[in-house]
Request: fold
Amino acid sequence: MIEKLRMQEVSEIIFSVPKGANIKGLNYQAGEAVMVINNPNTSQLSFLGSTQTASDGKGLLGFSNITNTIDFQINEGSILFALWSYLQGSVQKDYEMFVKKASYETAQNRYIALVGEPRGMYVYETNEDGSKTMIPSDEYEVIYDTVTETYFVKLASDRDGDSFFLSYNYGVETESTSFIKQIQNNIICDMDIYINAVDLSTEDKKVVYIHCDKVQLDMDLAISLNSSNKASFTPIRVLSIADGNEFNKNIATISVL
Reply:
């Protein structure tokens, strides 16, 4: 039946927890979906094999192919970034961190307002030729105004209207922070794919369903900025894990619904 179908698009991909698996740091139960991708913008599904050869002293005896990889290329933006950041490291919610602030500011009398509580403060005076001269730390101090709840640089003398360049770190609360590691995490899932198709002879709509009992996920991330020709891209590579004790194990089932 499948040879009579024209594949159109992937409608849904579901990754679930397989039996006997434990995803680090998460309390998912076997069979529970950990990620669902609906209507990815672009996708390509490939079943790839490797060739195994047998030979003796007289030459080639024969060869066989072993299908071991199901390769995806799916572009779905922020949903796949969540998976990529999990595979590459860890994510923390409501994380406090220090970020760099560097800006030109104008003094009001002797005061320059700051963003947050500063760490590692450097103050430079900007000269007419565009160069900068560092001001010694004993010629200013950082103070906190309890009324406005704002930190200020207080200069030693009145420098109203003068321009300064400030560089410092200050603490912020982030919604989420991804810690990208050198070595990826290992995540094993069940995989279910639904593909919309059309019968070439009758024009009836069909659904092709692909299931894999165990797959391991791997992916890269390419973020394209200020480019109308390229989109941010996160290709998923899915390596099938053969399940069972028999010699020629099943790695996937393909059904027409």
